[in-house]
Amino acid sequence: MGYEWIAIAVGFGVATGIIGKAKGNSFLIWFLVGAILPVIGLVAVLLTRNEDAEPERQCPNCRKIVKLYVQVCPRCGTELYLPDPSETRMPPPRGGRRGVT
């Protein structure tokens, strides 16, 4: 009797997780959101931004590549201000890997 709801929750969880992973986020977190809140989770993952397509910039202090929206460098703690547009870049294509840790 309750197994139908479990199958629906797992189905929505897998679908939500796959879409979340395709957008550059955690599969597990989106799976849990989709399984707990089936329809709302699927709508939420469809409305989230694609992390892979966010512009990037380089920290002037330690040279770490960070997303443009990051305000404090996670490596050295330097406050980052909005850079000149010429100092930003789009990330490499999804299949490529950069040598940044």
Care to describe what's here?
By secondary structure, this protein is mostly helical. It has 2 domains: 3-51, no CATH class; 54-101, no CATH class. Helix content is 40%, strand content 6%. It has 3 helices and 2 strands, in the order H-H-H-E-E. It has helices at 3-22, 27-36, 38-47, and strands at 56-58, 65-67. Strands 1-2 form a two-stranded antiparallel sheet. A hairpin with a 6-residue loop joins strand 1 (56-58) and strand 2 (65-67). The N and C termini lie far apart (49 Å).
Radius of gyration equals 18 Å
Instruction: Give the biggest sheet.
Output: 2 strands, antiparallel
- Side by side, the strands of the main sheet go 1-2
Note the run of SSEs as H and E: HHHEE
Share of residues in strands: 5-15%
Q: Which of globular, elongated, flat, extended, rod-shaped describes the shape? A: elongated
Please report the distance between the alpha carbons of the first and last residues: 49 Å
Helical content (DSSP H or I, runs of 4+): 25-40%
With helices defined by DSSP (H or I, 4 residues minimum), what is the helix count? 3
Query: Average pLDDT, to the nearest integer?
Result: 86
Q: Could you give the count of β-strands?
A: 2
In total, the number of domains comes to 2
